[in-house]
Design brief:
The structure holds two protein chains of two kinds. By secondary structure, chain A is α/β, with parallel strands linked by helices. Chain A is built from eleven helices and seven strands. In chain A, helix 2 crosses helix 8. Chain B is globular, with a radius of gyration of 21 Å. The structure holds thiamine diphosphate.
């Protein structure tokens, strides 16, 4: 009974959060990106984040296009740079929930530099990276998360480069919150995104999303339900997070909350330091004035 | 009897294929025996690098290919390879070209004979993935040689010639071949593939002994600090700059020679700097660049058939600018109209228009000229548009009073 699942979100109607005038959307049948979008909006709904309180910054790609469908403050920026734009936005408007939607190419290839520095800074932002192992938008070229030996339009003999474990990278670079989930588990994905949104520092959430039309076809991975079922059968509980022998096949990567620290959040720390600086400057000016007066 | 279109008997050693401009460029790279290709995909270039990946996988081209993490790295990787003496290639456009700007800026100064296709695309913002010349035009002053193609065949032939031009010791500069995104990148046409041995004979032995090629026998420091106070002083900087300028000017002759040699060897030629089309006795002329020229020539033919005395000049080599050639081609007309697929911000006209009127400084009298801008973000420039251009330029020839820039697709 497919409606049972929808009923569990009885008071959540995704259409309340979408720009319905943008429909039909451009995603291919079987693409996981729409599922991730729904999970994000559902998480927002359950946390009671008003649409006006949400700012979504997205890069270029199929993932990057999603911001256009969200009925909130949205900004479609250059390829690879959404984290940089979001950094400026989040520093200027700490009252907003700033969410970045990015693809594996956007975030780890052309924008990889911004990711490691966003993690290091630990500014309050939620980064949702939709990993479909491919550059979907440009027609299926190899990406830094393409598993070794997989076929893409630029690796006709199979990918020869090792791929990234983005969560391990984010954790190592200092992200306050790191988690991964598959699109097969929408409620779990929603819970993970909620935890990320609620985290007071930089939250990196990787979503393993299927590109059935290009990646799936090229590698003979079956229909989209088959690809999705494979995600599920391979899924590991987050208890596996301590295992060090995680193979690189994306769907064998550990899922769940993989790292969480209470490192100081950069924006608040900066504002505190700036306030202290202003106070001491004012005090100095005050004592100088007092001297002149005397 | 059904009509069978027999192919024009091709020279025995060449093969006929039907391909688009992106595939033609990939064929050329393969025929030029390039050693190193670095790529990052972008619309409308992506299929070009996919063809290259396939040619390499098939063993047709024995090059290294690297799928790097962005265009900045593309050109950086190729500079490294080029310094080591490799023949290199990449292609990009629009935002990709913008992102590679830092290494792009340094390539000509280092006199590296890199060859790169710009599959021209309009620049952001507004967001658009469609063709236009704004990307290539925005980097026109950087010091790369830039040649614009009109047809798929010209893409193939020019890409091969580009290596001989770039590596020529009187030039030693990087070369851009610009082919129009959408129209040439994806428009398929009949194309003659030259024979490998013939191409080898044309290109000759690869001569990697360019002055910066790293050579353990002649160790050197590439690009140390110059200029200002200290070090070798400003004179070293000036010497480099002047050298770069001479290389650029020398390329006018080298480009002409290469096109001439190409015509001799392969039996098909392209105008090297500019092409004059039906300019005999022309009272007025239109000036074009890139793939729009096909529709423009049709419009000129139709106007000539009606008895209009109009001709066309197509600019192929845009940098260095063929000022003398253009000035002499237009010397006799009473007016000319220039059609650009990009804009020059701050001048409120097209960049080719600006170049053309500057070139006409050499003319004994001032010739009235007008700027037309069209084909932005993939908009089609049709014969009807060129009829408007011809009509307006004719008026200009009559009254000598140029109007402000005309935006051709504004009301399409
Ligand atoms: C500077 C620059 N280079 C290249 C591109 C072309 N481009 C657009 S989207 C994209 C890749 C997108 O892949 P990914 O980030 O994995 O997202 P997906 O489409 O798979 O969701 C590329 C290479 C661009 N827009 N800008």
């Amino acid at each position: 009974m497919s409606s049972t699942f929808v009923d569990s979100a009885a008071d959540f109607d995704v259409r309340d959060y979408l720009r319905m005038d943008m429909m039909p959307h451009f995603l291919c049948p079987g693409c996981g990106h729409g599922i991730a979008l729904r999970a994000l909006l559902w998480a927002m709904h359950e946390l009671g984040i008003a649409k006006d309180q949400l700012a979504v910054v997205s890069g270029i790609g199929c993932a990057g296009r999603l911001s256009a469908y969200i009925d909130a403050n949205t900004f479609h920026v250059t390829h690879g740079r959404p984290l940089a734009y979001a950094t400026g936005l989040a520093l200027a408007r700490p009252d907003l929930h700033v969410v970045v939607i990015t693809g594996d190419g956007d975030c780890l290839a052309i924008g990889g530099n911004h990711l490691i520095h966003a993690c290091r800074r630990n500014l309050k932002l939620t980064c949702l990276m939709l990993n479909n192992e491919i550059y979907g938008m440009t027609g299926g070229q190899v990406s830094p998360t393409t598993s070794e030996t997989m076929l893409t339009s630029t690796t006709p003999l199979g990918n020869s480069e090792p791929s990234f474990d983005a969560c391990a990278l984010a954790a190592a670079a200092g992200a306050g919150f790191v988690g991964r989930e598959v699109t097969r588990h929408v409620p779990r994905l929603k819970e993970l995104i909620k935890a990320g949104l609620a985290h007071p520092g930089f939250a990196f959430v990787e979503v393993l999303s299927d590109c059935t039309e290009i990646f799936g076809r090229k590698n003979d991975l079956g229909s989209s339900p088959e690809m999705m079922l494979r995600q599920k059968s391979d899924i590991r509980p987050s208890a596996y997070r301590d295992s060090v022998d995680t193979p690189f096949r994306a769907n064998e990567l550990p899922t769940g909350i993989l790292a969480q620290t209470n490192r100081p959040e950069y924006g608040a720390a900066y504002r505190r330091a700036a306030a202290a600086q202003r106070a001491s400057a004012a005090a100095q000016a005050g004592s100088a004035n007092a001297k002149e007066d005397s | 009897m059904s009509a069978v279109l027999a192919p024009k008997p091709a020279k025995a050693e060449s093969k006929l294929v039907v391909c688009d401009g992106n595939e033609a460029a990939a064929w050329a790279v393969s025929l030029a025996n390039v050693d190193m290709v670095a790529v990052y995909p972008i619309t409308p270039q992506s299929s070009l690098v996919e063809y290259l990946a396939k040619f390499i996988a098939d063993g047709r081209l024995g090059a290294e290919i690297v799928d790097v993490e962005g265009e900045h790295s593309v050109l950086s990787v190729l500079q490294g390879a080029c310094l080591a003496g490799a023949r290199t290639y990449t292609a990009s456009c629009g935002p990709g070209l913008a992102f590679m700007f830092e290494p792009y800026l340094r390539t000509p100064g280092m006199r590296l004979p890199l060859v790169m296709t710009i599959v021209t695309r309009d620049t952001l913002t507004p967001q658009s993935v469609w063709g236009g010349h704004q990307d290539a035009m925005s980097v026109r002053e950087v010091g790369w040689v830039q040649m614009y193609c009109e047809s798929v065949q010209e893409v193939l032939d020019t890409t091969i010639m580009a290596y001989k031009i770039a590596e020529h010791h009187d030039v030693m500069l990087p070369v851009n071949i610009c082919h129009d995104g959408n129209y040439l990148s994806f428009g398929a046409a009949r194309c003659e593939l030259p024979d490998q041995a013939e191409v080898n004979a044309f290109l000759g032995e690869k001569d990697v002994n360019w002055h910066v090629a790293l050579d353990p026998q002649r160790p050197m420091a590439v690009d140390p600090l110059t200029g200002g106070a200290g070090g070798p002083g400003p004179s070293a900087f000036v010497r480099y700059r002047k050298g770069q300028c001479s290389g650029m000017q020398n390329s006018l002759k080298v480009i002409t020679d290469m096109h001439e040699e190409w015509g001799r060897r392969f039996g098909r030629s392209h105008a090297p700097l500019i092409e004059s089309y039906r300019m005999d006795g022309a009272d007025y002329a239109i000036v074009t660049i890139g793939s729009m020229t096909g529709a423009a020539k049709d419009a000129v033919d139709a106007a000539r058939a009606r008895g209009e005395k109009v001709g066309l000049v197509k600019v192929k080599t845009y940098r260095p600018f063929p000022a003398e050639a253009l000035a002499s081609a237009l010397a006799q007309v009473k007016a000319f109209g220039v059609v650009d697929r990009s804009v020059s911000f701050g001048w409120n006209c097209g960049p080719l228009f600006q170049d053309a009127i500057t070139a006409m400084q050499c003319a004994p009298t001032r010739i009235p000229a007008m700027s037309f801008i069209g084909g932005l973000a993939g908009a089609d420039l049709t014969v009807t548009h060129f009829e408007r251009v011809i009509g307006r330029t004719k008026e200009l020839a009559r009254d000598g009073r140029p109007a402000a820039t005309v935006w051709l697709n504004e009301k399409d």
